[in-house]
């Protein structure tokens, strides 16, 4: 089952900008829609990178093709981490980031969810960083009205533009998905004890099928499936530590319940880890720091190793 069903017209041309956090930001990817086979279930936005070869170590590797939805056996799916970068700023989890990256071709967004003091779900990485970026002087978590009324302020740096951005509530996510039915949101729950409540809240929404729950253990898969047997799930590994044989076997047994596995990029340098995870038959997606995860050379390297995509900043 694909993460996204994308309707397309093969005459359209879409420009996709992928922002890399070095000293400048520049256009690196040019997106065009796939010419053949477009239909509601199998269409694919192909994001073709400029150039033919990149060098990783002593290897000359083809620049990978980037996709807005999974293509079986191919790299590279783009997942916008924390809504994707905007103005050179990563991790904003902001309305502007989601909207801009959607306009540039992204269709899958990873967002971080927290709960306010009055029980509402909102999007922020953690409350201390929220306090810092909003200059909020009070106790956290705040109430929804307070959260929604404060802008996220990012200061200009050597690689980004200073700007203010609008916060995101679960209600806003639901409305965005309702208006963009080909989009999907991958959840990241920082407080694991609240994961069941987040799943319950999302399952009450009309856009529930456009959410993909990140599970953090095999037990989480069971808990989510108990709440909704049809729930879409990605297993993310970083909180469990490097997997061992029993976990590989458990993942393989659950392959039909999962849409993929995510792991830190540095783990994927270990051939034994990568081979064992690939043996599960599931797509593998990498995440990491912006300076590494946004590197096209590293994308080419891991594409050659069978990785399926990246959480880009």
Major β-sheet strand ordering: 7-8-13-14-15-16-17-18
The global form is globular
Give the helix proportion (percent range).
25-40%
Radius of gyration: 19 Å
Distance between the termini: 25 Å
Counting H and I runs of at least 4 residues, what is the number of helices?
10
Order of helices and strands: EEEEEEEHEEHHEEEHEHEHEHEHEHHE
Instruction: Estimate the strand proportion.
Output: 15-25%
Structure notes:
It is a single chain. This protein is of the alpha/beta class and 313 residues long. 26% of the residues lie in helices and 24% in strands. It is built from ten helices and 18 strands. The chain has helices at residues 95-103, 127-134, 144-148, 170-179, 195-203, 218-227, 245-253, 271-278, 290-293, 296-304, and strands at 13-14, 29-33, 45-49, 53-56, 59-62, 65-67, 77-81, 108-115, 121-123, 152-154, 163-165, 168-169, 184-189, 211-215, 232-236, 261-264, 284-287, 309-312. The strands form four sheets. The chain has an eight-stranded parallel beta barrel. A four-stranded antiparallel sheet has the order 1-2-3-6, with no helix packed on it. Strands 4-5 form a two-stranded antiparallel ribbon. Helix 5 (195-203) runs parallel beside helix 6 (218-227). The longest helix has 10 residues, at 170-179. The two termini are 25 Å apart. Residues 1-43 have low confidence and may be disordered.
Task: Tag the structure with descriptive keywords.
single chain, 313 residues, alpha/beta, eight-stranded parallel β-barrel, four-stranded antiparallel beta sheet, 10 helices, 18 strands, 26% helix, 24% strand, globular, disordered N terminus
């Amino acid at each position: 089952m694909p993460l996204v069903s994308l309707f397309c017209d093969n005459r359209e041309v879409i420009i996709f900008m992928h922002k890399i956090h070095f000293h400048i930001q520049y256009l690196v990817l040019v997106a065009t829609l796939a010419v053949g086979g477009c239909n509601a279930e199998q269409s694919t936005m192909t994001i073709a990178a400029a150039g033919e070869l990149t060098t990783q170590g002593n290897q000359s590797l083809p620049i990978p093709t980037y996709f807005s939805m999974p293509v079986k056996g191919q790299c590279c799916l783009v997942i916008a981490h924390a809504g994707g970068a905007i103005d050179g700023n990563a991790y904003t989890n902001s309305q502007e980031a989601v909207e801009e990256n959607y306009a540039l071709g992204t269709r899958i967004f990873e967002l971080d969810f927290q709960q306010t003091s009055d029980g509402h779900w909102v999007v922020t990485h953690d409350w201390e960083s929220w306090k810092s970026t909003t200059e909020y002087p009070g106790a956290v978590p705040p109430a929804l009205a307070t959260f929604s009324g404060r802008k996220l302020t990012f200061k200009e740096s050597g690689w980004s533009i200073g700007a203010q951005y609008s916060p995101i509530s679960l209600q806003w996510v639901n409305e965005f998905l309702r208006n963009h039915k080909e989009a999907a949101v991958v959840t990241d729950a920082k407080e694991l004890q609240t994961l069941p409540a987040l799943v319950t809240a999302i399952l009450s929404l009309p856009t529930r099928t456009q959410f993909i729950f990140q599970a953090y253990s095999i037990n989480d898969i069971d808990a989510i499936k108990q709440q909704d047997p049809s729930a879409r799930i990605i297993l993310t590994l970083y909180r469990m530590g490097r997997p061992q044989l029993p976990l590989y076997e458990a993942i393989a047994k659950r392959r039909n319940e999962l849409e993929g596995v995510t792991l830190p990029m540095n783990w994927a340098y270990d051939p034994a880890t990568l081979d064992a995870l690939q043996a599960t038959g599931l797509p593998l997606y990498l995440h990491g720091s912006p300076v590494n995860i946004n590197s096209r050379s590293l994308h080419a390297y891991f594409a050659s190793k069978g990785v399926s995509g990246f959480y880009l900043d």
